[in-house]
Structures are given as structure tokens and as C-alpha cells.
Amino acid sequence: MKRIGVFTSGGDSPGMNACIRAVVRAAVYHGIEVYGIHRGYKGMVKGEIYKMDSHSVSNIIQKGGTILRSARSREFMTPEGRKLAYEQLQEHGIEGLIAIGGDGTFTGANIFFEEYGIPTVGAPGTIDNDLYGTDYTIGYDTAVNTALDAIDKIRDTADSHDRVFFIEVMGRDSGYIAIPCAIGGGAEIVMIPETETSIDYVVDTLRTGWNRSKTSFIVIVAEGDDAGNATEVAAKVQQELPHMDARVTILGHVQRGGSPTAADRMLASQMGVACVEGLLQGRKCEMAGIINKELVYTPFIDTITKDKLINPQYVRLVDILSV
After folding, report:
1. pLDDT for 72 beyond 90
2. CATH 3.40.50.460 fits 143-256, yes or no
3. Which of 15, 131, 186, 263 has its CA 20 to 30 A from that of 290?
């Protein structure tokens, strides 16, 4: 293999640039030409492809976002769009791909390989940390610390005004951000998609705390919780506890931005090199990851279809520490 392409796809996450840097420099180290593909699959279809070298990735390791940009592509979802993408890769002589993204990104790469035989190795780039096949994903550590910093500040005002704050963090299908934020932020309650938390339980917990003369509370709500988002949960609780002064804060996309932590830069750098060397080893349709501090490769089909379960002891830890 003499020429490869790298792209980012799906939601951006802090550390993607560090991963791009590692891919480019590992390719240069191994004597391979590397091309950047702008705007993910959309750019692949449109031919937004350019050659990269070590200088292309100077001074980006500390930056959030992705210099290659990211975009949704309806065209790539069609056979006609994928044919155009294949023709663009052929025109540039690209023999293999490195995809930095999540399960949607890997689903597209899997289909593309089945149709055209272009091998892809993936790097887990998502703040949600919900990909099977790795203990941590690129951007997760930064997102948690960003959210936790905001929660610490919100607790200050909650204490000052005797308020209940319902704080919504990202996690449509996963509570991996919510759990460490709840434990590290000293929350009384955490609500995540993986476990059922009834409104009655939230009301009883807050009422019990209030009766013990506790005057401020933090409730962490993952956006995909079965009881609803933070605004919906707060409204239901306030109906039962009208004497409590409740506020809602939705942290939103602030969790995706910012300079990556040292942990994310390390992980991204490892994953970038592992992707390049995985392609050179003949791997295809696999995601690089770290499990128990060891490099592993997991088939895309597993990362897409298998669930990454949260340790129930973490949920129990929130209950124990909130008394």
C-alpha cells in the first residue's frame, strides 16, 4: 500500500486533530503518501481531496474540532453516491482509508468495502464513549472534564440560592458522560438511558434530602434518558415539589469543543499510528482501540452491533455518595 486517505466523520470530538496528526506522521514515517479528505463522506463524493505532509499537521495537536471538517452526506447513503466516491478515490490512487468517527462512520465504511473492496481501519472519535471495542474514545475525557467544570460552577449558584439544578449532558444512547459527572460533581441523582429512573424516585430522593435540611441539589440527566430530557424531568418534578426552586441547564455542544486533555492527545496519537500500521498489516473493516491498556482491533460489525455496558456499580456509587 503506497497511498492512503484520512477523514473525520460524524460529530466532532476534541483530539480528532491529534489523531489526524498521528496518521499523517505515521504515514510519512512508513514511506506512504497520505491524502486528507475534507468533510467526510460528503467530500469523498465531491472530490475534496488533497495531499498532506508533516507540515500540514504542525501546531494542531492542541486544537479542538477537526481541520478536515465533518459533514453529513445523503449522497453517500445511496449506491450512486458511493460509486462517485469510489471513482474519486481511484482518480487519486488511494488504496486504503482511515476513518475517525463513530458507529455511523464505520457503518458507511463497512458497506463501502463490501461494494468496492476499499479497506478501512477506524479510530474511535466520539465524546459519548459508547463504542464497543475500546475502553475510551477520542474526546471523551475532554468532554467529561468540560462538563464537570460547568457543574462545579453551577453548584456554587445552587448553594447560594437553595436551588435544585437539573443539568443535561450529552448521551442520546449512553450514560458514559453522565456517570463520571455525577460522581465527580457530587450529584444527588443521575439519570441515564441504560437504567430506568422513575420520576417518583427522583421526587422521593429530593424530598428526603429536603426533610434532612439539605437545601441544594444537583440532578444529572443524560439527554436520552427514558424519563425525558432535563426540561421535561424538571417540569414533572416541580409538579410534585412546588416549594423547590428548580432550574435547568443544558450544557449542549460546549462539551464537544475545547483543547483536548493530555489523556485524549495520548489516546488519539496511539490510535492514529495504530490505524496506519493496521492498514499496512492488511487489516480491513476494523477499529483500533485500547482495552486494559493494550492495543486491540475490533471488527466494525461488532462496534456497530454490540453494546458497551456501563458498570452498574457506578450507578450504585452515586446513590451511596448522595446520602
Report:
1. no
2. yes
3. 186
